[in-house]
Amino acid sequence: MRRICIIGISGKLGQYMVEHALARGYEVVGVCRPESTAKLDRFGDRITIFPGRTDDRDVVAEAVKGCQGVLVVLVPWGVDNYATGTAQAVLDSAEAGARLVFSCGWHISMDGKDVYPWRARAFVAFFGFFARPLRFADIGDQVEACRRVFASDTFWTVVRGSDMEEGESDGLPVWSRHVGDPVLASNLTKRTDFALFMVDALTNDDLIHEAPAIVGRKTASARAYAEAAS
Ligand SMILES: NC(=O)c1ccc[n+]([C@@H]2O[C@H](COP(=O)([O-])OP(=O)(O)OC[C@H]3O[C@@H](n4cnc5c(N)ncnc54)[C@H](OP(=O)(O)O)[C@@H]3O)[C@@H](O)[C@H]2O)c1
């Protein structure tokens, strides 16, 4: 892996991914909305920015040229299929054989075998009910984006984040195939470690065609699982 592209590079997750990618010696390019480029000033000429909406197919095609890896922040903002357009643009224009790693939340299910706590179900139902009529967000858009990724024949990974908190890194999160597995019960990950998992997934072939649900490695549930396994 030499050159990577981050689609949605200016957000919190995107900026953490820049830090981890630069630390690994990757050449980093990225796409973000033109009004957000100033958020990346601290990286100076260590990164190359392609200003544009992340669902702009021409901008994405230009940015991913020559990239062996693409990290994609999928967000359901608005009601114009932004996440779906973003995912499709990447699927259509990434280099053949490139590793593609997408972000989303636990609410996305690849095989329908996830078992959600009632609070998570209630939140998604509440958010979904109000967000779309208010034209604020459309959870169904992120679901459709991931459905297209799951159906594609690219080398994809969909990383499903738990609830997030800021703070110092606890190291690479642990993961499981299904929400509801005991190791995930703590439902909390440092945002920088979510980013670390995304960047690490670029070179972890065990994660190709997986949708890992992650949790912080120092959380109570992850520790209990590790102790039981040792
Ligand atoms: N927040 C959580 O607790 C949580 C939990 C689980 C999973 N996740 C997943 O983590 C990823 C990023 O989440 P995050 O909370 O850490 O956010 P984030 O990194 O701040 O990313 C937000 C992204 O959304 C873009 N954005 C914001 N408003 C927008 C708008 N109106 N139209 C288009 N793009 C807009 C931002 O671009 P600009 O810089 O241009 O504004 C940025 O790229 C997502 O895939 C999310 O599903 C988050």
UniProtKB/TrEMBL annotation:
<dbReference type="InterPro" id="IPR036291">
    <property type="entry name" value="NAD(P)-bd_dom_sf"/>
</dbReference>
<protein>
    <submittedName>
        <fullName>NAD-dependent epimerase/dehydratase family protein</fullName>
    </submittedName>
</protein>
<dbReference type="InterPro" id="IPR016040">
    <property type="entry name" value="NAD(P)-bd_dom"/>
</dbReference>
<feature type="domain" description="NAD(P)-binding">
    <location>
        <begin position="8"/>
        <end position="204"/>
    </location>
</feature>
<dbReference type="Pfam" id="PF13460">
    <property type="entry name" value="NAD_binding_10"/>
</dbReference>
